[in-house]
Amino acid sequence: MRVGLYPGTFDPITIGHIDIIRRASALVDKLVIGVAINRDKGPLFPLEERVAMIEAECAKLSEETGTEIIAHPFENLLIDCARDVGAQIIVRGLRAVADFEYEFQMVGMNRALDSSIETVFLMAEARHQAIASKLVKEIARLDGDVSKFVTPLVKDKLMERLGKTG
Q1: Annotation marks residue 41 as catalytic
Q2: Dihedral of CA 75/93/88/108: which sign?
Q3: pLDDT tens digits for 32-90?
Q4: Strand 89-94 to strand 68-74: parallel, antiparallel, or no bridges (unpaired)?
Q5: How many helices (DSSP H) and strands (DSSP E) are in the chain?
Q6: Is 161 among the catalytic positions?
Q7: Per the residue annotation, which of 2, 41, 127, 134 is the catalytic one?
């Protein structure tokens, strides 16, 4: 069984993330969405809500693709998480050159820690390249419309979390 790990904070999950998940599902039999418990980033959503949003969005994708997709919180090294879930590949989405520079460095470190786990990069679709959770949260905070960037479920949760309507 081919197992992939797609890690991130997913605070919140965006349509860009969902696109990468859909495309990564074609590469593996099981896709684990590694939800990072990164306290340094100070997430807007608590872990339980991020996991619940991922599970809700990925249930549909799992049915459509026939790939098992599960959410798995983690707080250890990414390479250790990959070992924990039995992943042979780590899936990373790239939006721009700046992403590549950071990811290139991470791949080198991860390969040094465990050369048996490959990293696969998926380029974001052109229409999703500007989407970043950080920017989505900022747009929502400033009363902008985020419906182009997140699903209706996530938009509702985001508005509720920020104490806003619409």
Answers
A1: yes
A2: negative
A3: 999 999 777 789 999 999 999 999 999 989 999 999 999 999 999 999 999 999 999 99
A4: unpaired
A5: 6, 5
A6: no
A7: 41
Name the active-site residue from 23, 72, 83, 95: 95
- Cα 69 from Cα 33, distance rounded (Å): 7
| pLDDT for the residue numbered 166 | 55
Cα–Cα separations (whole angstroms), residue 133 to 43, 123, 150, 159: 10, 17, 9, 14
Domains of the chain: 3-126 (3.40.50.620)
**Residue 93: how many CB atoms within 10 A of its CB?**
22
Q: Would residue 95 show up in a list of annotated catalytic residues for this protein?
A: yes
> Can 164 be counted among the known catalytic residues?
no
Catalytic residue among 22, 50, 128, 133: 133
